[in-house]
Amino acid sequence: MSGIGNFLWKISVALYLIANGALGLMKRGDFKVMFGNIFKGDVSLLVIIAGIIALIAGIAILLEMFNIQISFLDTLILIIAVIWLVFLVFEIVGWLKSGFSFDVIQKLAVHLMVLASLMIASKKFG
User: Fold this and answer.
1) Where are the domains of the chain?
2) CB–CB of 25/52 below 8 Å?
3) Which whole number is the average pLDDT over 113-118?
4) How many CB atoms lie within 10 A of CB 29?
């Protein structure tokens, strides 16, 4: 798969993972929201661990764009995708309880785009 669209998609996934990884190391960002919505109490350690995984995965995607193969990249992306999927299930349950709104549809679309991008980036999903 090649072309400008594929190039931009890989860059966007890599930058998204790098940014969320860096934010996770600062105990902020999407992972803090995700784990905070799923678990009660202090989720800092989970946020940092997910941040490290996302940061490494983002850097690995960039390196693969320069034909530097990373053997564990698919595993890292799979871990992030599973985290995202679990979060999305919890979010959908919460949204079903709160009722229909276009804000809910917009958030669902964004989370599905991220999940789909992660699944495409991982060869484990075909």
Assistant:
1) 4-125
2) yes
3) 85
4) 19
CA distance 58 to 56: 5
Tokens, residue 109: 């679309």
Assign 1 a pLDDT band (cuts: 50, 70, 90): low
Q: What pLDDT was estimated at residue 43?
A: 94
Using a 10 angstrom Cβ sphere, with 0-12 exposed, 13-18 middle and 19 or more buried, the burial of residue 17 is buried
Grouping H, G, I as helix, E, B as strand and the rest as coil, residue 122 is: coil
Q: Please report how the helices 102-121 and 4-25 are oriented relative to each other, as an axis angle in degrees rounded to 10.
A: 100
Q: Which amino acid is at 13?
A: V
Q: Which residue has the tokens 């996302």?
A: 54
Residue 92 and residue 6: Cα distance in Å, rounded? 29
Query: What residues contact residue 113 under an 8 Å CB cut-off, 6+ apart?
Result: none
